[in-house]
Amino acid sequence: MNTKIVSLLPAATEIVCALGLEENLVGRSHECDYPASVKHLPVCSEANFPDNLSSAAIDVKVKEILADALSVYSVNREQIKQLSPDVVITQAQCEVCAVSLKDVEEALENYLDKQARIMSLQPNSLDDIFNDITTIATALNVTDAGNTLLEELHDRVDIVRHKLKFSDGKPTVACIEWLKPLMLSGNWVPELVNIAGGVSILTEPGKHSPYVQWDDIRLQNPDIILVMPCGFPIERTLKEIDTLLQLPGFTELKAVKNSRVYIADGNQYFNRPGPRIVDSIEILAEIIHPKQFAFGYEGDGWIRFDL
Question: Which of 207, 185, 208 is nearest to 196 (CA)?
Answer without folding.
Answer: 185
